[in-house]
Amino acid sequence: MSELPATFASDQKSPMPRVLPDNELNALLVEAEANGLTLSDLAATCTQFSIAPRDLLNELSITIAEGYLERSLDYEFCDGVMNGIIKAVVEVAMTDDMPEPAFSLYQAFDLGEWIRSEDPPGTDPSEKYARPVVEEIMRAFRG
């Protein structure tokens, strides 16, 4: 089994409750995948739903991880969303702790972006490298 990214703290508190309604959540996921999101892009949603940016980013990333693990969302979409929120994740980390599990999940999806030289033909790097780490992160997050 792959190791958790070093930045992930395994002593996470109990899973956070969902704050955003499905339509808002889905709209943000689609926008993140298509165009990326910055903290400025998230400001109105954070205000409307009284949610801190770090919690919003964690909610988005947890939703992506759960959809990926349930196979209701494909790897390409999930990876695109995680790439689309990383700028906002880093912006939060400039003035606060790194949003977790958002950052660790970003790193996990990143692992599935390329085939390694030692991989045999037909290897799916998202299944071989990303999925096991996403599973570990979510297992640790859920406690």
Describe this structure in words.
- The protein has 143 residues and is mainly alpha-helical.
- Helix 4 packs across helix 5 (102-110).
- Helices cover 61% and strands 0% of the residues.
- The chain has six helices and no strands.
- The longest helix has 19 residues, at 75-93.
- It has one domain (22-142).
- The chain is elongated and about 50 Å long.
Look at the structure and give the mean pLDDT.
91
Radius of gyration: 15 Å
> What fraction strand?
under 5%
Could you tell me the number of beta strands? Answer: 0
Q: Topology, please?
A:
Layout: H1 22-35, H2 39-48, H3 53-69, H4 75-93, H5 102-110, H6 125-142
Helix pairs in contact: 1-4, 3-4, 3-6, 4-5, 5-6
Question: What would you say about this model in short?
Answer:
The chain has about 140 residues and is mostly helical.
List keywords for this structure.
mainly alpha, 61% helix, 143 residues
